[in-house]
Amino acid sequence: MSATTRYAAMSRRAAMTAAALTAMVALAGCNSGGAGAPAEGDMALGAAEGAKVTVVEYASVTCHVCEAWQKENWEAFKAAYVDTNKVRYVFREIPTPPAEIAVAGFLVARCAGSDKYFDVIHELLASREEFVTDPRSTLFRVGNGAGLSNERVQQCITDEAAMAAAEKRAEAARAAGVDSTPTFIVNGTKVITPGSPSGPSMADLSKAIDAELAKS
Q1: What angle do CA 56, 62, 65 make, to 5 degrees?
Q2: Among the four residues 57, 63, 103, 118, which has the most C-beta atoms within 10 Å?
Q3: What is the mean pLDDT of residues 185-207?
Q4: What gap in Å lies between CA 129 and CA 64, rounded to an integer?
Q5: What pLDDT score was predicted for residue 42?
Q6: Which residue blocks in 39-192 are alpha helix, DSSP H?
Q7: Residue 46, SS3 per DSSP
Q8: Within 13 Å, how many C-alpha atoms sit on residue 74's CB side?
Q9: From the candidate CATH numbers 3.40.30.10, 3.30.70.270, 1.20.1260.10, 2.170.130.30, the one assigned to the domain spanning 3-214
């Protein structure tokens, strides 16, 4: 079977899972209760679990608003709060259209392992336009960069158990009331910047975080 044929088979299988995910999580904007609580499958950076401040981001690797937030704010946020261990930063996956491509990206990131997970997520976001137009080449390139062979990438994105786990994570996000990407939750409270074209501003996020850090 050629690589193209194998990838097409993967796409059909991932599309079936993505259809179910999309039905469960209808997101606005590409626009909260239990959204900040610990969840199975959480991927985190910074302070350890039980930290004074936990920042949860719900995002998708095919979301142009998430792409903009990363380009505009990630390095400043990381330097101020993650690298200094002031917060526990948790990234939670929600597939946005084209959902089958987002699901494949998340599966490759998880296959790369916890030490390379965020490298894959951030590279896919940085390459979002390329990713949604040429997912096959992008997944191979980014996967290779994380130490995965092309064959391993194909195995990752056709892993039915992994797809089922992705479905459970998306269902948990829906149950938590998340309706947009990116959504940021600081110690259980959603951060909103009205009118922002790229999600919550760094100023509003910092204000929320700093207020929590200042509490006794």
Answers
A1: 65
A2: 103
A3: 95
A4: 8
A5: 87
A6: 64-69, 75-77, 99-111, 117-126, 128-133, 135-145, 150-156, 160-175
A7: strand
A8: 19
A9: 3.40.30.10
Break the chain into its structural domains and give their ranges: 3-214
CA neighbours within 13 Å on the CB side: how many for 67? Answer: 18
- pLDDT at position 147 is 98
**CA of residue 26 relative to chain centroid, distance:** 16
Cα(44)–Cα(56) distance, integer angstroms: 9
Can you give the pLDDT at residue 36? 52
Distance CA 160, CA 112 (A): 17
pLDDT band at 97, cuts 50/70/90? Answer: very high
What's the pLDDT band for 175 if we cut at 50, 70, 90? confident
Name the DSSP letter for residue 197.
B
d(CA 91, CA 178): 13
List the structure tokens of 67.
């792409």
Task: Convert the pLDDT of each residue in 58-92 to its tens digit.
Answer: 999 999 999 999 999 999 999 999 999 999 999 99
Q: Which of 98, 97, 124 is nearest to 109 (CA)?
A: 124
Q: For residue 31, is pLDDT > 60?
A: no
